[in-house]
């Protein structure tokens, strides 16, 4: 499948069932708590993507200006949020994605978002924007597995979905990788240009005279998450650390590794799919 055909395809990004249930419950209250609603949506890559898509739509005349869940909720009414949540709930039967362990995908995405936000604070970048980009940085991977499952399955047998070399392997096999898919979708959905460029260049943020600090932050955050998932040794961490990216941003390996620890994955995930 060509990239443009994939971007034109219709598919549903799966949401976290528990989050949808809690969100619908909160929305049914006489006086829903907007802070709780924001917190719930901000744990789910698909719901966050849906919300940004809605708030950046031409309907609100703010296309390309809304970067986060909190900004989206400031302009959307609860009627819109309820409708979005109900749509996500009705699509729950489609939540299985061949080759993707969704619970790990959701956990991984949230942890990348948290690390990206922390690193953004270290270098005085927009933390909300970094968190959002980190949370949705891999929706392109979901799209690839949903729209071209057979080809994705072949590559999965050769290179694990969370492997540090996954993007390079996808580019070699398909002619594009999850980063380009995510950026293409973000552009289609009228996301802010800074987010589109960060998603597109997250694989190589400073390649060919490109300078995308936000992409660099996502690059470092995904390195940390994937390195920990692979349980790399201290030596392997030092060897694989993207030092050029860190140097440009003024972030060294110790700064990345000394972020607050997370319970990344359950024990014995082995070579199970993401």
Give keywords.
Hypothetical protein af1432; 0% strand; 17 helices; 2 domains; single chain; 274 residues; mainly alpha; disordered C terminus
Alpha plus pi helix count: 17
The helix content, as a percent range, equals 55-70%
CATH class of the largest domain: Mainly Alpha
Give the overall silhouette: globular
Which stretches are low in confidence, meaning pLDDT under 50 for 5 or more residues running?
263-272
Classified in CATH, the superfamily of the largest domain is Hypothetical protein af1432
According to CATH, the fold-level topology of the largest domain is: Hypothetical protein af1432
CATH architecture of the largest domain: Orthogonal Bundle
**Span between N and C termini?**
22 Å
Average residue pLDDT: 90
Task: Write down the oligomeric state.
Answer: single chain
Strand content: under 5%
Work out the radius of gyration.
18 Å
Account of the protein in words:
By secondary structure, this protein is mostly helical. It has two domains: 17-94, no CATH class; 102-257, Hypothetical protein af1432 (Orthogonal Bundle). Helix content is 62%, strand content 0%. The protein contains 17 helices and no strands. It has helices at residues 3-8, 17-27, 34-41, 45-55, 69-75, 78-90, 102-122, 127-136, 139-147, 149-158, 166-174, 178-188, 193-201, 213-229, 234-240, 243-249, 253-257. Helix 8 (127-136) crosses helix 14 (213-229). The longest helix is centred in the middle third of the chain and has 21 residues, at 102-122. The radius of gyration is 18 Å and the shape is globular.
